[in-house]
Amino acid sequence: MAATEQVQSVGRRKKSVSRITMRQGTGTVTVNGLPVDEYFTIPRHRSLISAPLEVTEARSLYDVTVRVRGGGVTGQAEATRLGIARALLAMDDERRSTLRSHGMLTRDPRIVERKKPGRPKARKRFQFSKR
Predict the structure, then answer these.
(1) Domain residues of the chain, as ranges?
(2) Exposure winner among 22, 25, 41, 61, fewest CB in 10 A?
């Protein structure tokens, strides 16, 4: 890719959808208009997001802009991690083996199971009474 181009990618997890825009820069990460430290206050979430940049040693090479919607904070962080990994792959295809070996290119397919009729939740049953 040319140095001035930007790459867009999408990451999903549960109900969260994260749209990533990545371009050459100094390493700033913005999430919904806020710095990443203000949006994701839990250190585990921040480390999830920065993991693809750390393993490919591209932390200070790109500016990342994230727009994320839906789901909870953990789902949003994991969706963002997948989106950043896909954007890094679009920038340079030689990073595929590194990202794949760390499990960052696999979308987690687990979603919430639907509620069944006649039950309080998806699998829970009402209390049985013999008499």
Answers:
(1) 6-101
(2) 41
Task: Tell me the whole-structure pTM to 2 decimals.
Answer: 0.87
Please count the CA atoms within 13 angstroms of the CA of 64 that sit on its side-chain side. 29
Phi and psi at residue 22, in whole multiples of 5°?
Answer: -125, 135
Per-residue pLDDT of the chain (131 residues; tens, 9 = 90+): 455 589 999 999 999 999 999 999 898 999 999 999 999 999 999 999 999 999 998 888 999 999 999 999 999 999 999 999 999 999 888 999 999 999 999 999 999 999 999 999 999 999 999 98
